[in-house]
Amino acid sequence: TCSRNQSLKRPTKFREEPVSYPSDSSEDGSTQDREFRFVNIKGKVHKHEITLPSAADYQQTSAGDWFWEAIHSQKPCWSRNPDYCQFAQKWRMAGYSRPFRRQAKPGGVITAWLSVNRMRKAMYHSIQSELRLLNSDASYGAIVNSEGQFLCHPEIDFVINGRRVNHFGEALETGQQIADLPKMPKWPNFRYLEEFRLTRSNQNHFLVFSPIASTGCWIMIALDEHRLYNRPEVIHRNRAQQIQILIAALIFLVSFVAVVARVDRGTQFSFWVVSWTIAGASLLGMILLWMLNITSQDDRGTNEYRLTNHAIVAKQLIRLHTEDHLEISSIPTGVHLQSIQFLEAYNVKLTGYIWQSYSDDLPEWMVPTDDGEPGFVLPEAEELEIQKALNHRYEDREVFVWYFETVLRQSFQFDRYPFDQLNVWLRLWPRHFDRAVVLTPDLDSYYTLDPTQLPGIEHNDFVLEGWHLNENYFSYRTNRYSSDFGMHSLRQVDQVGYPELYFNVTMRRNPLTPFIANVIPQLVVALLLFSVALTIRTDETKSQLMGFNTNTVLGFNAALFFVVIIGHVSLRENLGAEGITYLEWLYFISYLAILGVTVNALMAGALRDHFLVRYGDNLLIRQTYWPLYMGSLFLISLWTFS
């Protein structure tokens, strides 16, 4: 935008003299100003002529700081109030002004208005290409001027109220102090502040600063340290490295014992030592894999956008407002759960309270009536009962509270049972989901935003048998639909990837009960099978001494088979999950062990001269039983948890 003034004198006299504008006369004879703007929308440049009333006086510093700051200083500068755009007040804009002179006198100001979203995208593209560590749901960007004041920030209050960067660290007052921060080892152009903890969320943040050339300003990226290092791809990579170290250590242990036992001599003692070492190493490796899975988060994350603070929420709304050009109405929504109960494998019952806060500037059709429907929809509910609890007036908004009981059908993954982790969620739509209405988490209603402190969960008398709650949080997910539900106005909303609000509760199963009910009986079966294998001999004298009889072994193994299959069927019926779970592999290995011992007994009775049973008086089955049994369990554990 170019504003010019032919009567401008020296900068020190600008505020004392009237300003005249080049103008045209409208049809009614009133004086108007003509301005032109060139707007780049998705690669196409559009020229817009903007007619301003003469009341738009640039001498008013509240409306024309982009003009007067540049005229007075005669230097390029950013506007003090980047949220205000005189030509498009509905957009969050930041103005960069550069004065020009005509015949050695001030001639006017050229100002470029940049949207916050465009600045954010430029920041992310430039910094992410170098750092390669940004996570969209764990980071947000801001711009700080040379005086340490925010020029743009997802939370517009930071800009309007003149917040400074020392909000993130007492040592940060000005741009020069930012420049004095330590440089990142691999990226010398970046400065960083390693530790910054948000009080309410109790999360450490990692701040990265990058200078903007020729402006004295800094780009600031705030990274949630917990989310940064707990992304699914990072967890998976770290787990793969730990598993590789574990495998190498076990191989070294077995090799070392084999060398010490002098297995090259071929004695039965050395073979027994190596056999028990392989079995013990497999058992140790399996237990370490269990511990690794218990102590780490699930590496199979969902495509969600965590909402852990106000800046992350504001960043998502800015995307809809500036990038998708939607007039957004937001409704703060809160959830408090009182109970969670698993009815079946994929059915869960939730009870609790949901409240919504409606400000006075929202249209009347959006605000629920006293006897009307609630302002939200639970689209996944199979059964739903909602009762209005209360509504009250608080300052400039009306707050409605509803009590709800619902049964939701959700998809869970049980392939790691009994070491599985589940995410139970409550999915919320706005009642008028055919319009540009977004539900936002009412973060101000929670005393803490630390997910591990379980905000929004009943702390007293909350019973969830067999489960341990890890954390709960709000998130946005983008879902696509193959229909518009008969409302054609919904197509525009769906095309931009409209965010849907989720209230998530992550939990980990207590493996003690499944172990007692399933693992211990199968270990007893394995010991009994090994005792049967000890009695199978090819030497007649030892066979009579051990009481070996093929028919007896067949009858005993048949009894063990029925014990195993009854336990397996009971597991499937109680769990009710699709697919094969981790614990079920223990039953499959028991089936193979029973079959192997049975075949060995038949060979010892009918094929006594076969080398597999003749060697060492059927020594092969006794020395390979536990290595094969434990080794198979270890390999299955490795495949399941890697």
Write the layout of secondary structure elements.
Elements: E1 2-4, E2 23-25, E3 31-41, E4 44-53, H1 61-73, E5 77-78, E6 93-102, E7 105-115, H2 116-131, E8 139-144, E9 150-152, H3 156-160, H4 175-179, E10 191-197, E11 204-212, E12 217-224, H5 225-229, H6 232-260, H7 268-295, E13 305-307, H8 310-323, E14 329-342, E15 347-359, E16 376-377, E17 381-394, E18 397-409, E19 421-430, E20 437-441, E21 467-478, H9 490-495, E22 499-509, H10 512-535, H11 540-546, H12 550-575, H13 584-606, H14 611-614, H15 619-641
Parallel strand pairs: 14-20
Antiparallel strand pairs: 1-7, 2-3, 3-4, 5-6, 6-7, 8-9, 8-12, 10-11, 11-12, 13-21, 14-15, 15-18, 16-19, 17-18, 19-22, 21-22
Helix pairs in contact: 6-7, 7-15, 10-12, 10-13, 12-13, 13-15
How would you describe this structure to a colleague?
This protein is of the alpha+beta class. It is 36% helix and 28% strand. It is built from 15 helices and 22 strands. A five-stranded antiparallel β-sheet has the order 9-8-12-11-10. Strands 13-21-22-19-16 form a five-stranded antiparallel β-sheet. A five-stranded mixed β-sheet has the order 17-18-15-14-20, with no helix packed on it. A hairpin with a 4-residue loop joins strand 11 and strand 12 (217-224). Helix 10 (512-535) runs parallel beside helix 13 (584-606) and helix 12 (550-575) packs antiparallel against helix 13. The longest helix is centred in the middle third of the chain and has 29 residues, at 232-260. The protein is elongated, with a radius of gyration of 35 Å. The two termini are 58 Å apart. The model is unreliable at 1-34 and 82-91 (pLDDT under 50).
